[in-house]
Each structure stands twice: as structure tokens, then as C-alpha cells.
Write a structure and sequence with these properties.
With about 500 residues, the protein is mainly alpha-helical. It folds into four domains: about 190 residues, no CATH class; about 140 residues, P-loop containing nucleotide triphosphate hydrolases (Rossmann fold), CATH 3.40.50.300; about 60 residues, no CATH class; about 70 residues. It is about 65% helix and about 5% strand. A five-stranded parallel beta sheet has the order 2-3-4-1-5, with helices on both faces. The protein starts with a helix and ends with a helix. The relative contact order is 0.12. The N terminus and C terminus are likely disordered. The structure holds adenosine-5'-triphosphate (ATP) and magnesium ion. Magnesium ion binds next to α12. InterPro entries: Adaptor_Cbl_N_dom_sf, MLKL-like_MCAfunc, nSTAND1, P-loop_NTPase. It comes from Gymnopus androsaceus JB14. This is Novel STAND NTPase 1 domain-containing protein. Keywords: Coiled coil.
Length: about 500
């Protein structure tokens, strides 16, 4: 498990330093560091799973990213590269869970092997260029442009070849991502196929789900930002906040209410608004008589259920997977698609969207997921900013934005869910629970805790490792990890 864990550790342990370094290298904050973390994670997991070509491919892409990062002088230079690589990583990440405990089939093995060789050539070419040219000359060298175009072509071709392996799902994902980069034609299908469902295993985030629900339901209009490193669970949290069902956060709500009302019974009144839309059933929450006195409106709910986000926003809860929407025009199209508004003749998309939002009377909840894509890849960031601020100005629209990194967008006061420095990793207990839910045959043990700690309890890493543990015993995972970590430390020392 080479770079995965150690890199996660380094990244998480030194967020501030890392951010400083990043901002100084690439001022506008195009986030290649998260890409590298993701590639390391994938490489490590694939290595442990014995999918060496996949591991090597991810490793080479990471080296390519590092070369480009070193040579880039500004964010503009690397926007397209960053977008291509992010898309590639997303597809590569799907290989491991899809193959799961099975052996990788020959065809897939061959495809990845060929891709690995292509990548090796690209890496060699880039390394040669990097040695030969000065910083400026490198970046503007004609050959360099060709190498990068080659990288994009090879990457697109490889992704297309995966269609044969994974069928319609990847195929459409690729189309959704690929087409959106070429043109601004976004279909409803593109959006829906890129929209994930809330993960079945979801641990350790009760408090944050509750906070999110509270913010959305207490205010007429809420603006939540879920920020943080790739794989930390931003999308999953957003999905759970918007679709939470009674029970998922009940325990925490119960204790919150008890604590608050004990300290000051008057607070019960404030809670009523919150509870009105929250996740738990009233009868589980407070004694019936207290309910009847203080919460008559709640008590009148016919089913005894109190209300939650679903109830407040009804069907007007929309999820926009922005990784397939790289600029303001495609964001508008995406919005029109999910809102199911058709464009009438003589009007443009913006105009229609604007008048729809202005005239709509009921609360709307928009989840803008992976917003880093339009924010960093659009040539007209200002247009993206204007659009989101315009939406923000519509009194009925609440927004949840998820983004990699530590900074949300625009001139909007975001409530950051998970803290100022972004979504934290899971607590050990939650990581253990997630691991064991995916791999129920694994026993709770000190060994498992060691592994989870080494993974820094990062959700993506925990999930990948739990999947691997179905085919490899824990001792092997730990041994491989320790071995790779040593290799990695050696590499890092050599580098430095
Ligand atoms: N609380 C959790 N418990 C268990 N698994 C989780 C949890 N949160 C996220 N995961 C799992 O971790 C993986 C990554 O989660 P998710 O896609 O939400 O991360 P992300 O931060 O949105 O990543 P990205 O920046 O790549 O969009 C998914 O497989 C998800 O199911
Ligand atoms: Mg996400």
C-alpha cells in the first residue's frame, strides 16, 4: 500500500503547510495535490489487490502530474490537463470496486497493460523535455503541447476501451464526462448517469448530518459548503443530508434536544422549528406530554412523524454533478435539465432559468457537487461566479456546494459543514464500523485498528481497503502496506 497511506498521512497531517505550498506554486489553486493523493490511493490499493498494471498506471500518471505541476507557471496552463486527469482518475477508481474480489480478466488486464506502456512513453517524453528546456521554454514548447494532447488522446481511448469491460455504466459516464468537455450539450441522461446514490455504508457523520439538516431547515435560505480532500466523503455527506430518513441521525438529535432543554426549557421552542424538519420521530424524542404542551404543531402530524429536509423541500431537491459541467453555459443547461424546464424559442437558457427561479414560490434545494470542476476548469471563472451568485440571490433557493480544497466560491457567506479546514477524516470507531460493514468476515482486532490508523481513517481508503480484505487477509494487507511504505519512504528520501 505504498503511497496511499503515507501520502494521506502527510496530506492530512500537514494541511496548512500543504496549502501554503500549493498556493505559492499555483496561485489560483488548481488542485493537483488532491489528484496526486487520489492517484496514490488508487496505486496503493491496486498494488495490494495484485492489479499491478493498474497500480503502475496510476503511479505513472502521478509522476506526469508532478512534472506538469513543477513546470506550470500558472493555473491557466494546466486547466485542461487537470480536467483530463481528474476524469481519468474517476474512471480508474471504478475499476477496483467493479472487479471486486474477482480476478481481473485477461482483456481488462491487456487494456491496462497497453495503457501503462503508453503512459510510460509519455512520461519519458515529458522527462526529456523537462531536462532540456528552461522553465518557460518547457511550458511553451511545441513538443510539450503534443505530448499533452497525446496524453489526453491515450487517456480518452483507454476510457473508451473500458466500455467493453464494464458495459453501459462506465460507457455513459464516459460520455457524460467526455461530451461535456467537447460541447455544451448536456442531456438529462448525462446528468442522471453521473449522479451517485447515497452510500449504504455511512458511518460517523451523524452529528454533521444533523447540523446540515438543522441549517437547511432553520433558515429560509441556507448556503452550506462541504469542503475537503478528495475521497473524504463530501458527496456522501451531501447526499445523506438531503435524503436523510428518520433514524439515521436520531441518536444525536435526541441527545441534543435533551441537553438543550435541560439547560433552558425555553430552548424547546427554538427546537420546534428545527425538529419540524428534522430526522427523528417525535414519539422517540420527547415524552408525549411535553410534546403536547410545547409542540402542538408537531403533535398534529398525522403519522406522528416530524418533518425533515425531504418534507421541507419536497421534490424540489436537485443534485447537479458538476464534474460533467465545466463552465457556466453547461451549468445552466444542467440546471435546466434537472429542473425539467424546456427552452422556448427566442429565449436563452439563462433568461429562462432566471425567470423560473424568480417566479417559483416554494423552497428549492440545489446540491452543486464537485463544483471544483467548473470553478477551476472554466476559462471564464467570473461567469461561473456570477451564475452562482445570481442563484444565491433567489430568496427561495438553498444551496449545498461540495468542493475539493479549503475554499468555497464567490461572494457568498457559506456555512462550512465540517469545520473551517474542511471535512475531517472519520473517527476510528466509525472507520472500523464502515470497514466491518463491508467486510463482515473480518474480526475486530488491534491489527485492524493499526491499519485504519495508518489509513488516517479516510473514508475512500477505508472502503477500498475493506473491499480488498474480502480477498486478502488482514495480515497480508498490513504486511504489504508496511513494505510499500518503506519503499515509499526510501523513494521520498531519494527525491529529497
Ligand atoms: N461516512 C462514511 N462512511 C463510510 N464510507 C464513506 C463515508 N463517507 C464516504 N464514504 C465512502 O468513501 C468514498 C468516497 O466518498 P465521496 O465520493 O463522498 O468522497 P468525496 O469527498 O466526495 O470525493 P471527491 O472529492 O473525489 O468527489 C465512497 O466510496 C463513499 O461511499
Ligand atoms: Mg465528491
Amino acid at each position: 500500500m505504498p503511497k496511499l497511506i503515507a501520502k494521506f498521512k502527510t496530506r492530512l497531517g500537514s494541511l496548512a503547510t500543504h496549502k501554503d505550498k500549493e498556493t505559492s506554486a499555483i496561485p489560483s489553486g488548481v488542485d493537483l495535490s488532491h489528484l496526486k493523493v487520489g492517484l496514490s490511493a488508487l496505486s496503493g490499493s491496486a498494488e495490494i489487490a495484485g492489479f499491478t498494471p493498474l497500480s503502475k498506471s496510476a503511479e505513472i500518471v502521478k509522476v506526469i502530474v508532478e512534472i506538469i505541476e513543477k513546470k506550470a507557471e500558472n493555473a491557466e496552463d494546466i486547466k485542461e490537463f487537470s480536467q483530463t486527469t481528474t476524469h481519468l482518475l474517476r474512471i480508474l477508481k471504478r475499476i477496483l470496486p467493479t472487479v471486486g474480489g474477482k480476478q481481473m480478466n485477461d482483456e481488462l488486464f491487456q487494456d491496462i497493460k497497453v495503457f501503462q506502456q503508453d503512459l510510460e512513453d509519455i512520461q519519458k517524453n515529458l522527462e526529456k523535455l523537462a531536462q532540456r528546456t528552461t522553465l518557460k521554454a518547457f511550458w511553451h514548447a511545441e513538443q510539450d503541447g503534443k505530448v499533452l494532447t497525446g496524453f489526453k488522446e491515450k487517456s480518452d481511448r483507454f476510457i473508451a476501451s473500458l466500455n467493453l469491460q464494464f458495459g453501459i455504466e462506465t460507457h455513459n459516464m464516459v460520455l457524460a464526462g467526455g461530451e461535456s468537455r467537447q460541447s455544451a450539450t448536456i442531456t438529462y441522461e448525462n446528468i442522471k448517469l453521473a449522479t451517485p446514490t447515497a452510500p449504504r455504508v455511512f458511518t460517523g457523520r451523524d452529528k454533521l448530518v444533523t447540523e446540515g439538516v438543522e441549517m437547511l431547515c432553520k433558515k429560509d435560505q441556507a448556503h452550506l459548503a462541504i469542503l475537503g480532500a478528495g475521497g473524504m466523503g463530501k458527496t456522501s455527506l451531501a447526499l445523506h443530508v438531503t435524503s436523510a430518513k428518520p433514524g439515521s441521525s436520531g441518536k444525536h438529535l435526541r441527545s441534543l434536544v435533551k441537553a438543550n432543554t435541560k439547560a433552558n426549557p425555553a430552548n424547546l421552542a427554538n427546537f420546534s422549528t428545527f425538529l419540524h424538519y428534522s430526522l427523528v420521530r417525535t414519539r422517540d424524542l420527547i415524552k408525549p406530554q411535553a410534546l403536547i404542551c410545547s409542540h402542538a404543531p408537531l403533535a398534529t402530524e398525522p403519522s406522528g412523524d416530524i418533518l425533515y429536509v425531504r418534507r421541507k423541500f419536497q421534490k424540489q431537491r436537485y443534485f447537479l454533478p458538476c464534474e460533467v459541467l465545466p463552465d457556466a453555459p453547461s451549468l445552466i443547461q444542467g440546471l435546466l435539465q434537472i429542473l425539467k424546464i424546456s427552452i422556448s424559442e427566442g429565449k436563452d437558457g439563462y433568461e429562462i432559468l432566471e425567470s423560473y427561479l424568480q417566479s417559483y414560490q416554494d423552497p428549492i434545494l440545489l446540491v452543486l457537487d464537485n463544483f471544483e470542476t467548473p470553478w477551476y476548469s472554466s476559462k471564464h471563472q467570473k461567469a461561473v461566479q456570477n451564475l452562482i451568485e445570481k442563484i444565491h440571490d433567489q430568496g427561495k433557493v438553498s444551496i449545498i456546494i461540495t468542493m475539493r480544497g479549503g475554499k468555497a466560491v464567490g461572494d457568498i457567506e457559506w456555512d462550512k459543514l465540517g469545520g473551517q479546514s474542511g471535512l475531517p477524516p472519520l473517527a476510528l470507531r466509525a472507520a472500523r464500523e464502515a470497514f466491518l460493514s463491508i467486510s463482515p468476515t473480518t474480526k475486530e482486532s488491534e491489527e485492524l485498528d493499526v491499519l485504519l490508523n495508518e489509513l488516517d481513517c479516510m473514508p475512500l481508503a477505508v472502503i477500498l481497503m475493506a473491499q480488498l480484505s474480502k480477498r486478502l487477509p488482514l495480515e497480508v494487507l498490513i504486511k504489504n502496506w508496511a513494505k510499500s511504505k518503506t519503499d515509499m519512504l526510501r523513494n521520498e528520501n531519494q527525491d529529497s
